[in-house]
Amino acid sequence: MLSEPNFTSTLNLTTPVPGGGGCPPVGIQLEGLILPPVLAVDVVLGLLGNVVALWIFCFKLKAWNPNNLFLFSLVIADFLALVSLPLRIDALLRGHWVFGDAICRINLFLMFSNRTASIVLLTVVAVYRYFKVVHPHHRFNRMTRRQAVVVSLFVWLLVVAPRVPLLAFNHIKGSGDRTQCFFFTSYKEASRAIVVLVAMHRILTVLEFVVPLALLLFCSVRISRFLRQRQMGKPDKVRKAMRVCAAIVAVFMVCFLPTTVTTIGLWAVRSYRPWDCNAFYTFTQLNIVSLGLNFLNSALDPPSSTSSPAPCSGRPCWGRCLTACAAGGMTWMDCRRRQHLGLSQPTSRN
């Protein structure tokens, strides 16, 4: 079978191995040039943003509602994904892996499980906001903190379980200054278990993009249409809310679409052109470089997490809401939606 991208840094394009062995393992130069600066930017911006977000959650946040619990889990996932990158940057700059087999397994596990967790939790947050704005009477909005914790734990279990096999296999190849921490070996060398692991990884890579993207698009379009139809807030603020929805979808596509496309490309080459090593190496290089965009998402999540308006709570807030509704002639639920979206309350008509 074909190899999944590895993180080596020497160029050695070859032809298929005689006898149908397929394309042998190959070191690829492109990621050694492009990935270190890209991943370094991801780490610096991402860790800075996530540390600030964790500080706000731990020391400034007064109310832990379900929305905040989901956002906190998202920040944790992004943080763990980012702390796994410095070792990968070091290996790219050195040209080989020096941290041993155990750290290699943990590094790969953290990179891919927390990337998936970041995507899934971002989708959970989007769905939660959708119900809060568009369906305020739905029972989903009566979720308690304990139930939110259970949902978060279930998401983590769902994400981590398919990645556990990464910890069961030795991904170290070579020795001395040729040692590499490969994600997967070439299909010529791979065991049956690795073949299954590669296939599962590719399926997850596609599904964890397509399904969350569909949900994000649905939630964003429905929220935007709801705001326009109800004419909630000033036109400029409504436009701003819709631009935020569009920006979230755009960032998601920029960060994850390239990896999905190149993964499908590798799949197609393996299935229909197993002798075409040039096509395989091209898609492999592009797939590796696209990983830099994956982790850029972890750097962009914190601003949306800490700046997201939370539903108003507490008796003083209810009093303000009642006063504003009476003065502006609005329904109670429209007033509550305004508070959740961070829109100004209506003024008196007199």
Account of the protein in words:
- The protein has helices at residues 30-60, 66-83, 85-94, 100-134, 145-160, 192-230, 235-272, 277-307, 315-328, 332-341; strands at 172-173, 180-181.
- Helix 2 (66-83) runs parallel beside helix 5 and helix 4 crosses helix 5.
- The chain has a two-stranded antiparallel ribbon with strand order 1-2.
- A hairpin with a 6-residue loop joins strand 1 and strand 2.
- The model is unreliable at 1-21, 307-333 and 343-350 (pLDDT under 50).
- The relative contact order is 0.15.
- The chain is 69% helix and 1% strand.
Strand numbers in spatial order across the main sheet: 1-2
Oligomer: single chain
Class computed from helices, strands and strand pairing: mainly alpha
CATH architecture of the largest domain: Up-down Bundle
Query: Mean pLDDT, as a whole number?
Result: 74
Query: How many beta strands in the DSSP annotation?
Result: 2
The CATH homologous superfamily of the largest domain is called: Rhodopsin 7-helix transmembrane proteins
The radius of gyration is 24 Å
The rounded distance between the terminal residues' Cα atoms is 75 Å
CATH class type of the largest domain: Mainly Alpha
Task: State the helicity in percent bands.
Answer: 55-70%
Separate helix tally: 10
